[in-house]
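Record type: monomer structure entry
Structure origin: computed from sequence
Chain ID: A
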Amino acid sequence: MRLDLPDPTLMVTGVVAPDRSRALFWHTSVARADVVSPGRVRLPGLEADQRYHVAPVLTEYLPSGTRPPQWWGVERVGDELAELLSGEHSHYAISGDDHGVVLTGALLGSVGLMAPLLHPDTTVLYLARAVTTSKGF
């Protein structure tokens, strides 16, 4: 599925398992936005009453210029100014035992999650998995 967004520089696409137990969404910046804040990313198609753990799929480095929102549960490691001047990737580490957030499918589909700031031609993947115990909310 592809979501229609008010900002044409952003795209959100996703695929949900037939049993709605998990989903993968990708949030892409295709051009420089006219606004400072990208707002929220809705993740539709999930079971409304089911709780889901949603987290970004992280590699060793975040894409250059990415500003992760607090719900990602990561913290900067290293000197931001030195990284900017050298053109190096931003270094982040997971802060705590787990990263991400647990919310219901209804909230994810209607309200969504705060989106990160992304440079053009950058994509972030989000993995949503159904959970049986509550962890936040």
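Annotation 1: The longest strand covers residues 122-131.
Annotation 2: The chain has one domain: 2-131.
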